[in-house]
Write a structure and sequence with these properties.
about 270 residues, alpha/beta, 2 domains, eight-stranded mixed β-sheet, three-stranded antiparallel β-sheet, 10 helices
Amino acid sequence: MLKKCFFASGISISLVFATHAALVPDKLQVTNYEKYNVINLGTSSYTALELNDNLPLKDHSTPTVVVGINTNPTLELAYQIGEKADFLIASQQPIVKDPRSENKVLDSTQFMKKLDNPIEFSCRFIQNYAEYLRKPKEDVVYTLSAIDLSKIPAVITNITSLIDAVNSSEAAGVKKAVAAAANNATAFDDYIDLGSFYTQLSKQIKDKKIADIITEGLRRIQKAVVARVSPQSLHACGLSVYYPKDAVQDSYKSTDFETQTGWLKFITQS
């Protein structure tokens, strides 16, 4: 049975299970473990569309993991690459003390090849990376999470239900409550933590139908995030969603997440 693991504080990194090393672009480093493969994105940062274009097709007989310390574990990215990967390990708030730190962690954990499955690998990797970054008397703010991509469609379905319920609600102040919740949620540049957003929204919504959707959404988020480390004060679940402060990225409108949910219209009309 696969187990979930959580740690008190740490960083999130993206890992994707690769299938055929020959199909992977040169800038992506592939390590073949005995029971799964790992694609290391290094310090490169990817949008949902960019990463999906660069990943190879998935070999369904071998799990695939991607590691990217400068890639945010966004809902948009997780949904976009779901057909090409099994797990994503990424950082909402990366701390890069050494560009080679990811490789150092991987090189120092060769025993991880003997782990039975990618969840065990992800948990151990996150724990090791957090220990690598932690130093006495240093105030380090970072997150590190591992996402089970097979659980993301259920989160998307919940968000679609939330959007429909808010748009159809006749209760006063519902849309203002959405805007307030987004503004009060833990933010990472143009993204907010999805769990934090849901938690903030639950404090302001009295509509029972919407409240039930939020409760179910938090449950689905917890199932999707199989391992994470972050300061308790950060109030981050380890999965982000787009909430731009200024202009919207042109490419965002082409993401599968936006096409499926209409998220941009939802957040701009709130």
